[in-house]
Amino acid sequence: MATAMSEDNIFEGEDELSSMTTEELIRGARLLDTENRILKDEVQRTTLELDATKEKIKENQEKIKLNKQLPYLVGNIVEILEMNPEEEAEEDGANVDLDSQRKGKCVVLKTSTRQTIFLPVVGLVDPDKLKPGDLVGVNKDSYLILDTLPSEYDSRVKAMEVDEKPTEDYNDIGGLEKQITELVEAIVLPMTHKESFEKLGIRPPKGVLLYGPPGTGKTLMARACAAQTNATFLKLAGPQLVQMFIGDGAKLVRDAFQLAKEKAPCIIFIDEVDAIGTKRFDSEVSGDREVQRTMLELLNQLDGFSSDDRIKVIAATNRADILDPALMRSGRLDRKIEFPHPTEDARARILQIHSRKMTVHPDVNFEELARSTDDFNGAQLKAVCVEAGMLALRRDAMELLLVILGRLQSSSTKVEGEFKEVLSSMTGRKGGRGSRDYAETPSSGGLKKGIHGTEVQQPREG
Known about the structure:
Order of helices and strands: HHEEEEEHHHEHEHEHEHEHHHHEE
Structural class: alpha/beta
Subcellular location: Cytoplasm; Nucleus
Strand order of the largest sheet: 3-2-1-4-5
Number of strands: 12
Keywords: ATP-binding, Coiled coil, Cytoplasm, Nucleotide-binding, Nucleus, Proteasome
Distance between the termini: 114 Å
Domain AAA+ ATPase: 204-343
Helix content: 40-55%
Shape: elongated
Pfam families: AAA, AAA_lid_3, Prot_ATP_ID_OB_C
Number of helices: 13
Radius of gyration: 39 Å
Coiled coil: 36-63
Largest sheet: 5 strands, antiparallel
């Protein structure tokens, strides 16, 4: 159809040309030559303008490169202003303030030289991406913003980030199945299955408190939780937040939570939280007041206007009874998980976990060992396995010495009777939960029947 129409137009054009006179054809040809000449001049002018624009762009790039040479002057954004002046008639057109005619965003900048600068022209950074408090690099002469800089944090806070992912998992923890379930529900599931909580319309806990006697697996549980999630893991120690200068500890807490927001989702683990979270009391000592200020900053970060649901806090302590009620209330450390001393079945499981990579004799009865380690915690049970291996290593070294001297045949090392010997040199806890560990001494009185009827020294009471 289109081909037929074009052919009709050609025929019509031929008919029109055939009806024109010679003078009309010459006049039309001259008009076409004139239009062609005008178009060529336009192309030439556009080419010259393009070359001039390229040259100008090249000059501007060289100027930018020259101005962006390091070092920069460091500054902070104080305020971002919107400049949209109303159009007013000028009495004298010669006196026009160009800065007053600018429209858009302007910046109030404070440099590291303690100067406050107003910039009607921001610089090379998009002003829509700037916000108050941002750290920027500016030209030391014109103060134009050349680049944005990473946020400034205390070097101690940067060191708190755990770069290497922990290798522990929940299979390395024995006898704490209930505690593992509660921790996964409060910390892991809100990060991995956030939509499930939104569907139910519930808000997951912000923090978890792990409390119990020493050596019951609180820190190990936190490391396993960090290994299960892909979240950033920050490890803080309570005594580390107690600083000498006023406000220094609170600044560490603020910087830690600010770093956690930038790297969200994030888990903050505060070990020995009782160092800063004790109950408040009247004191004239400046150090006590500084510790209380640090705790107040922690309370504000947990449940303040700037709190973030993507940040989860795990706190661990041996003394939950001395913590401040404001720290323990719901909305901050919502879930409290107790870590008691392991039961007999849990002790057998812990011994099996710590001895699974050891060359253990098949006759070793872990259930009987668990009955002989009444009131041992997880750390003591691990020490039993380590000491049994050290005794086996010692005996093997003596056999190797005999091989050198007497050309005797040495047998392979197996941890067999070493568990019994270690238990003979270690004593259990006395007095129940939270009591102090007692080491065996030659003068210790009292005997207790251990594994295979061996007598184990017990400390004298009182």
